Amino acid sequence: MADKVATSDSLGLARIRRFNIGTSATLMVIVVILFVFLTATSPVFLTAANLSNLLRQTSINGIIALGMLMVIITAGIDLSVGAVVAIAGIVNALMLQAGVSMLVSIPLTIAIGAAIGMFNGFLVFEVRITPFIASLGTLTIVRGLVMIISGARMVANLPSGFGRIASAEFLGIPSMFIVWMALFVLTAFLLSYTQLGRNFFIIGSSPEVARLSGIRLRPNIYAVYGLCSAYAALAGILLSARLSMGVPTAGISYELDAIAAVVIGGGSLFGAAGSALGAVLGAIIMQTIRNGGNLLGVDPFALEVIIGALILIAVGVDQIRVRRAERG
């Protein structure tokens, strides 16, 4: 029985990889078309200053999207990542303000973020609360904690070296983008070449199949939610470095942007589909539309309508794909 399950899983993962390759190729074409169009219509778009700003803007959402991707692959969802961004920024800023070294405060803040994610994993696996409700509850709790810890005030007067984490460049490339790309490589490797990544896809396809394949659900669920929140905590640290302060209201609706990036990038809310490259391209497409629209003077509310339409189209395509797969 286990051999049959393993063979079925291998074939399923092969189909997922082929689908992801086709989706990524389509998204790359869309990115190229957007860049060509905006270059032709705006003299500012292709300038070094605007591209650097675009990369910095995209990096925060892109990092969160990579973490969200892993959860969505398991057919879960994490609505608390925006709140984790806020608490990470505040906690790290308070530690820095108290004189704690960045070499201590940053890893500790990321660990706190991972612990919040593992709490989500506890609620989902042990208490059997659906991921949507579990993470919604965590979002509310963490938002409240942020306000209590910060006194609902910004935490400023941070060491100048902290701000340079976000403002630094290497060969003209923003450091925030380099961090994002490093996480992209790490996530792509994890999903494509490790047993943990394979487990995420199998769990998203069917928890029962995963169990029959000998996969221990508990550590994998804890791991995926922990990783997602750790990514969000890192994004929160980078955001506070860019702002040079901890902001208690930071990260509002970031979870929606991350989910949108994953869905536009080919991820399926039904689970077992998606790629790191797709999530990266989805984030780039969203932010490029916003950036280009602002340069062209497009109403920002109209831009949100466009992005919303893209999400609906992506979900519609996913629905069609799932129905075709069910029909065989």
CATH-level-2 architecture: Orthogonal Bundle
Identify the quaternary structure here: single chain
- The radius of gyration computed from the alpha-carbon positions, rounded to a whole number of angstroms, is 20 Å
Amount of helix: over 70%
Strand ordering within the main sheet? 1-2
CATH class category:
Mainly Alpha
End-to-end distance: 22 Å
Tally of contiguous helical segments: 13
Please state the overall shape, judged from the principal axes of the Cα atoms. Answer: globular
Low-confidence stretches: 1-8
Mean pLDDT: 89
Query: And the CATH topology?
Result: ABC transporter involved in vitamin B12 uptake, BtuC
Q: Tell me the structural class.
A: mainly alpha
Order of helices and strands: HHHHHHEEHHHHHHH
Task: Describe what this molecule looks like in 3D.
The protein is mostly helical and about 325 residues long. It has one domain: ABC transporter involved in vitamin B12 uptake, BtuC. The protein is built from 13 helices and two strands, in the order H-H-H-H-H-H-E-E-H-H-H-H-H-H-H. It has helices at about 1-40, 50-75, 80-95, 100-125, 130-150, 160-165, 175-195, 195-205, 205-210, 215-245, 255-265, 275-295, 300-325; strands spanning about 170, 175. The protein has a two-stranded antiparallel sheet with strand order 1-2. Strand 1 (about 170) and strand 2 form a beta hairpin. Helix 7 (about 175-195) crosses helix 8 (about 195-205). The longest helix has about 40 residues, at about 1-40. The protein is globular.
